[in-house]
Amino acid sequence: MKLGAVIPVYNHGGPVAGVVAALRSHGLPVLLVDDASEPGCATVLDELARLPEVSLVRLPVNQGKGVAVMTGLRRAHELGWTHALQIDADGQHDTGDVPRFAAATTAKPEQLICGCPIYDDSVPRARLYGRYATHIWVWINTLSFELRDSMCGFRIYPLAATLQAMQGQHLGRRMDFDTEIAVRLIWSGMRVTNLPTRVRYPEDGVSHFRVWRDNVLISAMHTRLFFGMLLRAPRLLWRKVVPT
After folding, report:
1. Concatenated DSSP letters for 142-167?
2. What's phi and psi for 72, nearest 5 deg?
């Protein structure tokens, strides 16, 4: 098993170096995916890519977090990784939990290891309430409560099975990606281990969540997944009778 970290980056030139340093301290190789950042951030990423075990993929135009992550997962597979830790570049995720997530992957390498956020007072209330609506839709669209939080960008994917689930699918290209790929992995039969992890929103953090655009995309995704669930409902229900 070979685990590495994929970091989608768009104009997070300030905190990304600290995230990379923390991941390298845990012995993980790091793959940065630059989603067409502005020149200052791009320069920071070029410097980081000179470090041992740090590599960089650069997208020519900004395409969204989902595209950046998918690009990173495909490249990680080409590098020979078997598993990829997805983590945000803005420092909101607790890198101290990396060993615990890695241990869970070692114990259950065929499962999605997904973070379940523990928020402090820095979390924007509107974002928090919006997550609850998504949780309900995910439970409906998977006909299960197995996935406790589909929007957390701190997770470990088994690469071969994830790339297979991505194949031939028009997945969400922006903030809708994390939820959609998790639902599709459950549809494919993948089990989930949910691990609590602390999440904070830095006061000087840069958020690329666009309320109107991303909420429309997320709503469209839930609708698409709902009809997909209806087609798969007999199989999903049968799994409850005959667990895999």
Report:
1. HTSS--S-S--S-EEEEHHHHHHHHT
2. -65, -40
For the cut 90, the answer to whether the pLDDT of residue 37 exceeds it is yes
DSSP 8-state assignment for residue 93: B
Q: In 3-state terms, what secondary structure has residue 82?
A: coil
The CATH number of the domain holding residue 217 is 3.90.550.10
- How many angstroms separate the Cα of 185 from the Cα of each of 111, 170, 191, 236? 9, 14, 8, 12
Sort strands 54-58 and 83-86 into parallel, antiparallel or unpaired.
unpaired
Pairing of strands 155-158, 112-119: antiparallel
Buried b (16+ CB within 10 A) or exposed e, 10-21: bbbbbbbbebbe
> Which secondary-structure segment (H or E) carries 237?
helix 211-241
Cβ–Cβ < 8 Å for 98, 26 = yes
Domain extent, residue 103, equals 3-241
Please give the average per-residue pLDDT across 200-210, as a whole number.
61
* Cβ-count burial 234-243 (b if 16+ within 10 Å, e if not): eebeeeeeee
Count of domains for the chain? 1
Residue 157 and residue 84 in contact, taking contact as beta carbons nearer than 8 Å: yes
And the tokens for 204? 């000087």
83-101 pLDDT, tens digit per residue, is 999 999 999 999 999 999 9
Spatial separation of the C-alpha atoms in residues 135 and 168, rounded to whole Å: 26
